Amino acid sequence: MRQTLRSALARRGRETVAWLAIGGTLAVMLFTAHQVRQGWAQRRVAAEQAVRDQLTTTAVLIGTEAAKMSALELRSLLWPVLGTNGSPNRRPLTLDAFARAGAGQVAAMSDDRGAARPGYFRLARRRRGEWTAELRGALATDSAYGRAVLDEVRRWTGRVDVDRPGLRIGILHPNVQGVPVVVGMAPERGADGRAVALFGVAYARSAALRTHVGHVLHGVSLLPAPARERSDGVTHDRARVDNAALAVRLRYATGLRDAVSAAAADDAVWRSGFVATRAIEGPDGGFTVEVAVPAHVGRRYVAAAMPSASERLMLGGVLLLGLGFAVAAALGLRRQYRLAEARRTFVAAVSHELRTPLAHVNALSETLLLGRAESPEQAQRWLRAIHREGRRLSVLTENVLLHARGERRGIRAAPQWTDLGAVVHDAVSLVEAQAQARAARIVVVGTAVDGTTGSARGWVDAAAVRQIVINFIENALKFGPDGQTVTVTVDVEHAPAADGGGSLLRLSVDDEGPGVPPADRDRIWQPFVRLAEGGSAPAGTGLGLSVVRQLVAEHGGRWSVCDVPGRGARFRVELPLAAPAPIVAERVDEPATSPAAPRRTIAATGR
């Protein structure tokens, strides 16, 4: 008992370890998949931030380049004044000459969204320190515009010493009538170095910066091609500039937002999440550059840094493969556990089935050896009982051997010309004692035993037919009630010659038991399956019907079970009796009909 308990605990321990190993493998796989997905999510966040960083760099580049262009342009407009200072043979510069020199440059600042509104002025210094203004261009035609600009300039001259030798230019960024304006000024100096006049130019800063930013957008590619487009094996034109997807707008201190590129006119692009801003400071700055790309463009750059579809598919395949292996291992372990349980049950059942007839044989043989038979007739009865129990043991052993050979695919039929009625009656005689113990009656009927079909002989394995009948009757006795009638029907059906001839053996056994539920009619033909009745299964090995299935399959026949109306269950098989060519010819030529011909059985030919 202690040894059995110890072995059971060890067996359970091994099963627990196996289940824990399978569960641990699944947990590790799922944790690894989770970590991989977390890594992908982090890569996505990093890729999105990289796109925004690239846009920030783009905004800095656009802003600094536009500010540089603005400074160069302003100094170019003021160059007629700066170039005359310090010249030994200089001529006095007039406002008209100054305006004509800058007209060509200012005209390039105008676009389809508005003119630059250029205006020129000259402030001449009076002896009392006052300035006399002379205006040209938009400053002369628009009095409000001219007064606003001159007011800013006079305030500037009031706080700046224009006579200081180091002062070359002055820059103002006033807002006139809601429009950002740039005002550039340069003093005209006399021979003593003092300022005698102040020349200046004023124009709309928004128009100028739009022009400068446009030059930047058309001069250099600010959006790199995604990595997969660069590595797709296609030769790209490096001289081609394409910033069409880039949205750029400038924001000024007044709150004005000036869209520079065509993509910036779409409000949705500024809600894409791929937006960057950069303030440009300094005397040539004072504005903010806002840059964005549409959501689909940003996602394309992010996708270039993410795992490809093949990598995702590979991860999914690995997970599915691992899951499949784990499920297969679990199913295999479960099947192995069930098989081990079935084998343990089988061993116990076989031991029980062997114990009763062996005990009977031992008791009767010992009684005979001790000479306790009261008469020769009683001794003969005991010998017949010993013989009957021995044949019963042979039937049980044959079932076990047939099952083992079937598991190894070693069953081989040995057909011969057989008297079907004699075989069936022989099988019935082997189970008569069991029927008498249950007060049951076995009735054999059918055309193969009453002579209505003439010769009841067929080309079939006699041992297989005998085993089928025995197993069916034993099954009926186990599941049927006491005192029942078990009906064995043996019919031989001869096919017409037009249909190819041949014969078919129909063998069925009817009992008066509870029948077989439809859900179990396929399962009962499997090994070790015993249907429980009233909470417990009857005694037996669970191999009878499984052996029947194997024997019938080897003969190329069919097996089935159905209900008998008002009675119980009917187990039926159909076996072809005609030998197939060329084996038929070979077997027919043998002297199989001779009484002295040896009988070949499954037990003798199985390998």
Note down, in words, how this protein is organized.
The protein is α+β, with helices and mostly antiparallel strands. The protein has helices spanning 2-77, 79-84, 95-107, 138-141, 143-159, 205-219, 227-230, 295-305, 309-369, 376-407, 420-430, 432-437, 447-450, 462-479, 544-554, 583-589, 602-605, and strands spanning 119-125, 131-137, 170-172, 175-176, 179-189, 195-204, 247-251, 257-259, 275-280, 287-292, 416-419, 441-445, 457-460, 485-494, 503-510, 558-564, 568-576. The chain is built from 17 helices and 17 strands. The strands form 4 sheets. Strands 1, 2, 3, 4, 5 and 6 form a 6-stranded antiparallel beta sheet that branches. Strands 12-14-15-17-16 form a 5-stranded mixed beta sheet. Strand 7 (247-251) and strand 8 (257-259) form a beta hairpin. The two termini are 39 Å apart. The model is unreliable at 230-236 and 580-607 (pLDDT under 50).
Number of helices: 17
Which whole number gives the mean pLDDT? 79
Distance between the termini: 39 Å
Number of strands: 17
| Beta-strand content estimate | 15-25%
Helix content: 40-55%
Report the sheet with the most strands, covering strand number, pairing sense and barrel closure: 6 strands, antiparallel
Rg, rounded, reads 55 Å
The assigned structural class equals alpha+beta
What is the approximate shape?
rod-shaped
